[in-house]
């Protein structure tokens, strides 16, 4: 879907990431990528880092996020900025969805 102007949700393949997490790669270019992650209650996004700047918007649910050693509980409407290579991860406290924006795109997701 690289550089696709219109990306319709019904056409996006859901990719089971295991352990209660489903990923959908939405619109993206080489410079920017939009990804939806759906979490079941109790699912964990393991601590990790990558060379991309990332903004996460909480669409629904409640999550405990750890960013650079600091933990906070976030819910619908909250956002987080994760700069390049900062260690981050989360635990889903109430089933929900996250919308992640990456700069540049995550080539490992396609």
Give a nutshell description of this structure.
With 110 residues, this protein is mostly beta strands.
Describe the fold and architecture:
- The chain has strands at 15-18, 21-28, 33-39, 44-48, 53-67, 70-75, 79-82, 88-103.
- It has 110 residues and is mainly β.
- The chain has a single domain (13-104), classed as Jelly Rolls.
- Strands 1, 2, 3, 4, 5, 6, 7 and 8 form an eight-stranded antiparallel β-sheet that branches.
- The chain is globular and about 35 Å long.
- The termini are close together.
- The mean pLDDT is 97.
Structure keywords:
0% helix; eight-stranded antiparallel beta sheet; globular; Jelly Rolls; mainly beta; 110 residues
Runs with pLDDT <50, length 5+? none
- Full CATH superfamily name: Jelly Rolls
**CATH C-level label:** Mainly Beta
SSE order, one letter for each helix or strand? EEEEEEEE
Number of strands: 8
> Termini distance?
9 Å
Strand-residue proportion = over 45%
**Overall average residue pLDDT:** 97
Helix content: under 10%
Query: What is the CATH topology assignment?
Result: Jelly Rolls
């Amino acid at each position: 879907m690289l550089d696709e102007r219109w990306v319709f949700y019904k056409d996006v393949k859901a990719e089971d990431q295991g352990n209660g997490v489903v990923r959908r790669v939405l619109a993206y270019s080489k410079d920017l990528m939009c990804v939806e992650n759906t979490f079941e209650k109790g699912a964990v996004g393991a601590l990790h880092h990558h060379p991309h700047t990332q903004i996460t918007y909480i669409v629904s649910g409640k999550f405990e996020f750890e960013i650079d050693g600091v933990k906070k509980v976030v819910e619908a409407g909250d956002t987080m900025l994760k700069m390049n290579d900062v260690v981050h991860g989360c635990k889903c406290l109430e089933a929900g969805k996250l919308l992640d924006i990456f700069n540049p795109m995550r080539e490992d997701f396609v």
